[in-house]
Amino acid sequence: MSSHEAVTDAAPQDTSDKRRWIALAIVMTAAFMDLVDATIVNIAIPSIERDLGASFGAIQWITAGYALAFAAGLITGGRLGDIYGRKRLFLLGTAGFTLASALCGFAASPEMLVASRLLQGAAAAMMVPQVLSIIHVTFPAHERGKVFGMFGAIIGLGAVSGPLLGALLTQWNIAGLEWRPIFLINLPVGIAGLLLGRKFITESKAPKALRLDMVGVLLVTAALLMLIYPLTRGRELDWPLWGHLMMAGSVLVFGALVAYEKYKTKKDGSPLVELSLFRVKSFAAGIAVQLTFGVVLGIFFLVWTLYMQIGLGWTALRAGLTGVPFSIAVSVAAGLSVQKLVPRFGRKVLQAGALTMIAGVLLYLFEAGRYGTGIESWQMIPPLVVMGLGMGLIVAPLTDAVLSEVPQEHAGSASGLINTTGQMGNALGLGLVSVVFFGSIDDERLAKAPAEVGAAFTNAFQNSLGWAAGVLAVIFLVMFALPAKPKQHLEGGGDVDADAVVVEKEPALTR
């Protein structure tokens, strides 16, 4: 089959064409690049802060900006691929992601880096949704189970290797570039993906693609900006009146979004958000879990990095190595939960995950207080492993649990909304760092007594852990609204509506 020949989702796949495995390697590499970029940035935050003189508010936007742009464009990126061609949008997204990575790597100021990260997130929103859609139309049904298994392994590898790779690249200080190689490493990978993708990926479109809802995208983006921007800047500016007014106004914009989505549904049946889904109790509860879980992750991973590298004075490499047991525990528990535990115990596995995470958070809180700034990496391993096991029990089966009672015809809209909500929660959590972490740090006192930085950051870290434990307790309670035994939607690697295919990723470990 010619790589330039456009096919629809209903077209039979050519199993004699060996080039499909090269196409698989290309899209998997792009997914790996996105996930590594998501997990690689956090570990380099202190280096960025020192080199560019970035304020803590700018630091929050370097991470939250990516998540916000990615969330706002994720559903639209998938629809653009359905309408104009998945290969075309994949290559366009890859080109944008590569260009934005170069701009990030050569950023001369915090403002330029924030703007480049916003562009990078928007490009990822075009690139990432095409990955599973391309896999779906490239491989026949009997091969998809094996292919999706390989994809899951790549996702796990990206989650584990990202922080360590970021630590190594920052620690090595290649050519005196300090943190910049964490972005510049994407350039050769992205260029190779573009050249090979043009040749080996087959173009495909959806036979009945949903229309775009740009007004919905603008409304949801405006609402999130009005909420998150004042959160990140409020503390630096002593919480001005305009910030409170913006946050209150975001509620009105969210209300306008709901009203417009109702109108859009009646007009052409292609809303950005399918509001009827929220009548399904398990879906509404699952979205609440996804949002609040994203908030927890957004808070924890940023404050954890700041605590280790600024508060404790550790190197990027030491901080990166300290996090390896956590990543391994997440991967192990995720595999066990889907393959062994959820089919037998259902919802109880997710609730056990929430309680396990709470136990790990409380153990970490206790150790941070007991050992203070003298805490060692090996002493962090027990709470991190417990937290990782709990997170793994939640992240892998959560999507199936949320989708289990959703009508099949709305599976695409629902899965897209799940991923978007997770990214929104991540961005919101990063915004809240200024409240739960920096809000307990007295800048004037630290300016007079720099020696107290370690104690101040340790105290702020404990405060953040307390918030995280409280939110996880709420998540545990909301999980009672999930189905007792979630159905398996994609059993046996069978056929899936390509319109419904949206990348199911582990939560971004703070982009």
Please explain how this structure is put together.
The chain is mainly alpha-helical and 511 residues long. It contains 18 helices and two strands. Helices cover 74% and strands 1% of the residues. Helix 2 runs antiparallel to helix 3. The protein is globular and about 65 Å long. The chain starts with 6 loop residues before the first strand and ends in a 33-residue tail after the last helix. Residues 1-5 and 488-510 have low confidence and may be disordered.
Largest sheet: 2 strands, parallel
Secondary structure tally, helices: 18
Work out the strand percent: under 5%
The helical percent reads over 70%
- Compute the CA-based radius of gyration: 22 Å
Shape verdict: globular
Low-pLDDT runs of 5+ residues are 1-5, 488-510
- Helix/strand order, N-terminal first: EHHHHHHHHEHHHHHHHHHH
Count the E strands: 2
Q: What number is the mean pLDDT? A: 85
Spatial sequence of strands, sheet with the most strands: 1-2
Q: How far apart are the first and last residues' alpha carbons, in Å?
A: 38 Å
Structural class: mainly alpha
